[in-house]
Design brief:
Layout: H1 4-34, E1 44-45, E2 48-49, H2 50-74
Antiparallel strand pairs: 1-2
Helix pairs in contact: 1-2
Length: 90
């Protein structure tokens, strides 16, 4: 019988990988999508180049929201110890 904790840990690890991929795509898309043009044509937001603002500032805020949501609603609290009946499968 498979320990349910490993199934939960595997699912949560995949959620973490998906979050990392989303973060990379946001950062890369805005940084190289908007920042690859002529610097004299850059637009600025709060004194920062548009590409930097969207990739680093807005991307950070979006990732904080996504991670907070994932931790609050998708992750489960799992005990590290074996079950009461002495199951030591680790």
């Amino acid at each position: 019988m498979e320990d349910n904790r490993f199934k939960i840990a595997n699912r949560e690890a995949w959620i973490g990988v998906i979050l990392v991929i989303i973060n990379f795509l946001l950062w890369y898309g805005f940084a190289y999508g908007l920042g690859s043009g002529d610097p004299s044509k850059y637009r600025y937001i709060f004194g920062l180049p548009e590409w930097f603002f969207y990739s680093c500032v807005l991307g950070f805020i979006i990732m904080v929201i996504l991670i907070s949501f994932a931790v609050k609603y998708l992750f489960k609290d799992v005990p590290f110890e074996g079950e009461e009946e002495g199951e030591d499968r680790l």
